[in-house]
Structure formats: C-alpha cells, structure tokens
Design a protein that fits this description.
Elements: H1 2-22, H2 26-47, H3 52-68, H4 79-98, H5 117-120, H6 125-132, H7 137-148, H8 153-160, H9 164-186
Helix pairs in contact: 1-2, 2-3, 2-4, 3-4, 7-9, 8-9
C-alpha cells in the first residue's frame, strides 16, 4: 500500500509539474529540464560521443519539443519513455541531415552478423562502450537504434532516409567491425 500511495503521489507531482510547464512557469520548466535532461543527454551522447556542441544543440532542441508538446503527453506509459522518444527522433533528424556517407547497395550476408560474445565478457561496460563509440557515424546510429532503442530496420530506414537493406548492411558491418576491434582489444 505504501508504494501505491507513493506511486500515486509521484504521478500527481508529475501532472502538476507538466501543468505548470504548460502554464509557462519558468521555474517548473527549469525543474523539468534539470530532472530529465541528464538521462536525455546520455542517450544523445551514445550517438554523438565526440560531438559535444552538436549534443548540446540536440538536447536543447529536444527539450524545446518536449516543452512545446507537453499537451500531447497522454499520461499513458512512462513520461521518461515519452521524452526518450522525442530525444531519439531529434537525434535521428540531426543524423539524417548531417550524415554524409553514401548508403551501400550490398546484399546482407547472414554470416557477416556473427559475433563471438565470449570475448565481450572479459571487457568492462566502459571499455565496450568506448569500442562502440569508434564506429563511423552511420554505423553508430544504426547500431544504437537497433540494439539500444530496439527499432526495427523498417523504422530505422524511414528515420535515416535509406532502404531497409542498407540499414541491415550497416548493422551487420558495425557488428563485424566491433568483433574485429574487440578481438584486437583482448589480444
């Protein structure tokens, strides 16, 4: 019962915070930003690890969208998830406009996707994330969308303005590159 009451209190607090933001309370908007921006920034940095200025710009754009679309939040599902979706869409908008790689037109080969998970087990999470961050921008974006956001290739293709086959190819090539880097890291 205590957790239910606490949960209801949190829902009520969130509803009041959202309403205050919609009423243009700068204090409430700042509170919402301070509460949810660290997690949003973490998502952005997964895509743009070495691009601090772009990451800050995307964070600001995403929170502008959050604050101007609060009336669209239906209180169904988590608010964090709703914000995350806006952040990922803002990141993919940026990537679609700024990724200059020409999409490959190769057939996807199933054996390209094979990775040896045993070698990953000896790495720390931080080391693995550092290796992932070395992927080229298109590969990194697709890897993040597929693995961390769990988007299907059809949605990734639409978000990044490419074919599903190209999305699959980039994912498989990212996995191949990661396998090579992980094996080199372990040796």
């Amino acid at each position: 019962m205590v957790s239910s009451g606490k949960s209801q209190q949190q829902a009520d607090d969130l509803a009041m915070l959202i309403q205050a933001c919609m009423n243009n309370s700068r204090v409430a908007q700042k509170r919402l930003y301070e509460q949810y921006s660290p997690a949003a920034y973490g998502v952005i940095k997964r895509y743009l690890f070495n691009h601090e200025e772009a990451a800050q710009e995307i964070l600001n754009d995403a929170f502008f969208k959050v604050l101007t679309k609060l009336d669209q939040y239906s209180f169904q599902g988590s608010f964090e998830g709703w914000i995350r979706r806006i952040v990922v869409n803002t990141v993919t908008d940026y990537l679609r406009k700024n990724i200059k790689d020409v999409p490959p037109n190769k057939e996807v080969q199933e054996h390209d996707a094979y990775t040896n998970s045993g070698s990953v087990e000896v790495m720390t999470q931080k080391e693995l994330l550092q290796v992932i961050q070395t992927l080229p921008p298109v590969h990194l974006a697709i890897f993040n969308l597929f693995v961390f956001e769990q988007y299907p290739h059809k949605e990734i293709a639409a978000l990044l303005d490419m074919t599903e086959n190209n999305s699959r190819w980039y994912l498989n090539d990212a996995r191949r590159r990661l396998k090579e880097k992980i094996n080199a890291f372990i040796k």
